[in-house]
Amino acid sequence: MQIGEVQVAAKGKISQTREQPFQVSVLDAKPLQVQSQPVTGLVNQISGVRVREDGGLGSNVNIMLNGISGKGIRIFVDDIPADLLGNGVAINNLPVNMIDHIEVYKGVIPTKFGSDALGGILNLVTRNVKKDYLDISAGMGSFGTYQASLNSRKYFGDKNNAFVGISGFYNHSDNDYRMDDVTIRVDELNNTTTGSVRRFNDAYIAYSGKVSLGLRYANWADLLRLDLTASQINKEWQHGMTTERPWGEAFSEESNLNVELKWKKSQMLNKKLNAIFNAGYSYINTCFIDTTAKTYYWGAVDGLEKYVSSSPGESGYYVDGRNPVQYISNSFIRFNLSYLLDKTHKLSLTSLYTRSDINGHDERGIASFGADILSNPQSLNKFYNGIALESKFWGDKITNILSGKFFAGNAEVVALDETINITGYNNNSYQRWGYGDAIKILLFPFLNSTLSFEHTYRMPDKDELFGDFISVFPNAELEPEESQNLDLGLRFKCLKSKLTFNINSFFRNTSNLIFLNSLNAWKSTYMNLLETQTIGFEGELKVSPLQNMNLYANLTWQDIILKDVDDNGDIEERYIGANVPNIPWLFGNAGFSYMLPWHITKSDKINIFYTCNYVHDFFLSWEIDGITSTKATIPQQVVHNAGISYTTLNNRLSFSLETKNITDEKVYDNYMVQKPGRSYATKIRFFISK
């Protein structure tokens, strides 16, 4: 088995997902659970996807998919928006051992997700083993990295129809890797030079525990499950947007408590009606501590201290530093109904209601702002309703899904004047209608084509509307983002799927894009700034030339140009028609896996694997400005990774050893923020099932 869209021959949910008329890639995580690769690393291998990170374990993650990135790409966990559940289930926290497979939808999004994503989603589908099992893994790696996970389930009762499950994980890393070409202080006059330094305030710890209680195969429910989850995240902050000036003592903490109920019943009303109900509540407590009266430097020479005395606060221009505490509560209710009208037509309806409330306190901030601006509660309500008609024609050779969507929202946002004084509340309300269609045609047994179009919206989220009152301030006037998405794809397979080739072309016309706009050195706010147009192509090839050998390669090219600007003058009209900066335009992946033909016992498996990630260099600022040879550039990167795994005792026990960035390249996803160099990781896994 190897990373890519077409990995699994066995029929099941993965195969059914791939056969939809949408542009969708599915990565089967089960064969990869022996590896120490994080979920973000697996996602980064999928065609059309680029993951940008600020550093090592626990760093900020930005996912780009077919020209759209950031909040325009939504992440789901078991069909539920991950942002409702806190960072304990963030994509950079969940271990691979908890994931069954990953679905990546590009362009048109199925109505079942209740999503207001602008151009795509990632759905992390967790494991649902239908028998007793225990899965324990532990690993360690470079830069003080330690990880462990536990997954288990026990069935009981006369018909084994009741179960209890326990799962959890622990992630830790010092992230103390070296960075090159960093400014170093050389004397008390603050003269500097450049050199190599080690990160010193970037440790990350995340741990989570989950208990599941459930019942299955009852007359009134195929499944009833209650999940209780608690998680804690402690993170040190090494710097701001770039590494120019380090932070030496700033850190944040986050604790989460989640409860979720799921009910599922199929084949009601003469085996025509299926229903799923989800409800959940999460309570999130976050704090950011920035109170030290020191200004740090990247290292020093001749015995100089790494810091000098200053006013409190490293992250901005504050009188007494900052220690904001925020309390966030999220609740949601989701219904999904599907009704079989006849043998060739199915009607689906999905409704999702979410509410987020936020308040808090910031005693240190009073000295800077004259009031505790976090003590004023803010709220956001969202409602989504989607309907879809799936039809099959011509002996099931043509599948068409026609959909309509309704988006509505209401937010109560704190209103501030130019001097950050609270003047009351602003209300932001909106209603939008979206629509789309997706069709798949089986041209030949070995070739099918897909065509999909969608006019959709993305509602501003709580981060954009409310800000964090640290460096991002509220804006109640944000409008929903809007996009027209068009995709055309071909899927080819032959030689019993030993050779597969997929190609997809995509078009995005996006307006009212929400960008974080800097107002001064310490204050920024989200604004609707841009209208862009994207065209692109992606292709993926997978070959199995020998038994137990798999090779794959994919490449994505995209051209994103500015079509119009906002009325605020933040971006000049002369940039219309130019490529939008700071976005990769050419990237790809390649790799192989090979199971060695020799072994010690019949149950042994020795697998070697290799991956390569390529990203072409791209400019930080507008290409038409300045001299190309001297412009700020995120450099080209070619990163090689390799490993070996050994499995024995009928898949019960496995070991793996991996090397990432074998050639120790200087790797940058973002400008002046270097990622880790060469690193090593090892993992041991024990799995038993009844």
TrEMBL record:
Coiled-coil regions listed in the entry: none
Q: What's the short name of a Pfam family annotated to this entry?
A: Plug
Task: Kindly list the places in or outside the cell where this protein is found, as annotated in its UniProt entry.
Answer: Cell outer membrane
Q: Which GO terms describe its molecular function?
A: siderophore uptake transmembrane transporter activity
Q: Which organism is it from?
A: Saccharicrinis fermentans DSM 9555 = JCM 21142
Instruction: List cellular component terms (GO).
Output: cell outer membrane
Annotated membrane-spanning segments are none
Domain TonB-dependent receptor plug, by residue range, is 17-121
Q: What is this protein called?
A: Outer membrane cobalamin translocator
Q: Which UniProt keywords apply?
A: Cell outer membrane, Membrane, Signal, Transmembrane, Transmembrane beta strand, Transport
- What does the entry give for GO biological process? siderophore transmembrane transport
User: According to its UniProt record, which protein family does this protein belong to?
Assistant: Belongs to the TonB-dependent receptor family.
Main localization is membrane
Record flagged with keyword Signal: yes
How does the UniProt record describe the way this protein sits in the membrane? Multi-pass membrane protein
